[in-house]
Amino acid sequence: MAATRGRPRSFDREAALTVATRLFWEHGYEATSIGALTEAMNIKPPSLYAAFGDKKALFDEVVTTYRQTHGEFMLRALDEEPGVRAGIARMLREAAAAYTDPALPPGCLVISGAANCSPANADVAERLRDLRNANLTGFEQRLRSAVAAGELPADTDVPVLASYLAAVIQGMSQRARDGASARELTALAETAMRAVPGGDEASGEGGAS
């Protein structure tokens, strides 16, 4: 029987992508070496390059997949809830749970994945910065719609409120990486809701609990 031409892939590409996601999430882009990736995936470097391209291409695919899975809760919460305060409260509540999920690395890959990158990898840091800014734009769009619909006061400073929410989300990610519990982050989320206009915090309306 004639030998089959070419070298068939001897690993599960999706499983390998999951492994890479965890490594980048735990250690960041720059601290995750090709050697660490291939060892964890149990493959040789040529197989990694053949399946994913170079390290930056692999990271880009990891980030894209991450945003479609673990990272989709933010804008989904704002889109699915009928009221903007309910959407914000849900987003913050789900961030508290997601960032401290014991089955996953703490925090958010998009927020922390390119921390401390050297100038040689400035394009990686820029890519993640652009994604964070895209989330900020999504926050602004939802808030502007809420103002137009009368859900928020007409004098709401939308850019400042959107930036505040982005800062809270990023801070929750970092606190999770520093060991904060889900309970602590949930309390933080409830406190953050007091800065969102239009709610009666004394009666508990619109909180993140």
TrEMBL record:
| UniProt keyword list | DNA-binding, Transcription, Transcription regulation
- Start and end of every HTH tetR-type domain? 10-70
Q: Which InterPro entries match?
A: Homeodomain-like_sf, HTH_TetR, Tet_transcr_reg_TetR-rel_C_sf, TetR_C
What domain of life does the UniProt record list for this protein's source? Bacteria
Q: What is this protein identified as?
A: Transcriptional regulator, TetR family
Q: Which PANTHER family match?
A: HTH-TYPE TRANSCRIPTIONAL REGULATOR YJDC (PTHR47506:SF1), TRANSCRIPTIONAL REGULATORY PROTEIN (PTHR47506)
DNA-binding stretch(es), residue numbering of this chain: 33-52
Q: Name one Pfam family in it.
A: TetR_N
Gene Ontology molecular function terms on file: DNA binding
